Amino acid sequence: MLKIIKMKDTLVKPNIFDHIDIGTYLQAHYQFRKKNTKGFSYESWANDLDIKSRSLLRMMVTGKRSVTRNFAQIIEKSLELNSQERKYYFLLVEYCRAESEEQRNSLWKKMVVLMDSHLPAEHISHAGFISSHLLPKIQTLLTFEDLLKTSENIAEVLGAPVQQVENCLLQLQELSLVSRSESNPLEWVTDIKRFKVPDSIQHESLKNYYIKAFQDSIDAIQLPPETRKFRSLLIPLNKKEYAEVLEKLEDAFREILHQYKSETLEGRRVYQLNTSLFPLSK
Fold first, then answer.
1. 179-180 and 188-189: which strand pairing?
2. Of 82, 83, 81, 110, which is closest to residue 95 (Cα–Cα)?
3. Last-in-domain residue among 69, 86, 117
4. By residue range, what is the domain housing residue 40?
5. By three-state DSSP, how is residue 70 classified?
6. Tell me, what's the pLDDT at 7?
7. Whether the Cβ atoms of residue 147 and residue 157 lie closer than 8 Å to each other
8. Is residue 22 within 8 Å of residue 92, measured between CB atoms?
């Protein structure tokens, strides 16, 4: 559900993903800066941005004039946005400028993907969570509402030994990620519907997790061709292009997760999508 943003003085930096109008976002940013920066005003802001007309800045921020692309480029420098926030910011500018319903719908779909990727998610930074490749898989299965969440059924779905699954569930319980159902002690439940393992984790367990993930890929090559897909590319990249490819892959992952998220498993199979990008030549 989208939040209704009301203008008020605040000590908290406005979250751009809470806004679907560029004007309300810029007004919220102005109020934030004015509350937290001594002497901040439209005049000082215009001077910082090298904008000659303070009144033009004020009119665009307050919505009395539409935000031009050139103005959006200039003011973005002062907003201190990260890469994903910046993408959303420029989409928001175009969304508010769009003249046709078709344009707005196309931009809205892209905005929703970014909004969805920034919904609250449990950051699981404990190395124990990736000590076994089964733990994230089991944690994921427990989010499906229509799955019988007994250790026996989970083991059957994953094709793993029941005892191994039971041990993994106990590990997840020790990490306070799952618990036994109060209505049926044979079933397991979780309150965590979305989770992320931060990239900052540098641990031997993470390396072992990826080794197992790609071993799964090797084993999967024996599956019927219609149930799996392999593809390999050889491309020349400099450092800048390498970073651009990584960003494109992240965008693709976000879009896939948004488009194919589901709370039920009926009629579906859980697929594993692995990516790797590394230098082949020196």
1. antiparallel
2. 110
3. 117
4. 16-117
5. helix
6. 45
7. yes
8. yes
Asked if 32 contacts 26 with a C-beta cutoff of 8 angstroms, the reply is no
3-state secondary structure of 195: strand
Q: Position 18: which residue type?
A: D
Tell me which residue has tokens 């944690």.
Answer: 139
pLDDT of residue 208: 86
Q: Look up residue 196 and give its DSSP letter.
A: E
Q: What is the DSSP string of 99-126?
A: -SHHHHHHHHHHHHHHHHHTS--EE---
Instruction: Quote the strand ranges of the chain, DSSP E.
Output: 122-123, 179-180, 188-189, 195-196
Q: Summarize pLDDT for 197-248 with one digit per residue, the tens.
A: 877 666 787 888 889 999 999 999 999 999 999 999 999 999 999 999 998 8
CATH of the domain at 141: 1.10.10
| Runs of H (alpha helix) within 77-194 | 83-97, 101-117, 134-141, 151-158, 162-174
Q: What is the pLDDT of residues 124-150, one digit of tens each?
A: 878 788 888 999 999 999 999 999 999
Is there a single domain that holds both residue 73 and residue 135? no
Let me know whether 76 and 135 are in one domain. no
Mean pLDDT score, 115-122? 76
- Tell me what the mean pLDDT of segment 262-277 comes to: 93
Residue 35 shares a structural domain with residue 105: yes
Residues 151-166: tens digit of each pLDDT: 999 999 999 999 999 9
Task: Please give the Cα distance from 86 to 83 (Å, whole number).
Answer: 5
Residues 189, 142 contacting (CB under 8 angstroms) = yes
| Gap between the Cα atoms of 268 and 145, Å rounded | 13
- Whats the size of the chain, residue-wise? 282
Residue 268 has pLDDT above 90, yes or no: yes
Q: Judge whether 89 and 81 are in contact, CB under 8 Å.
A: yes
Mean local confidence (pLDDT), 166-179: 94
Clarify whether residues 100 and 138 are in a common domain.
Answer: no
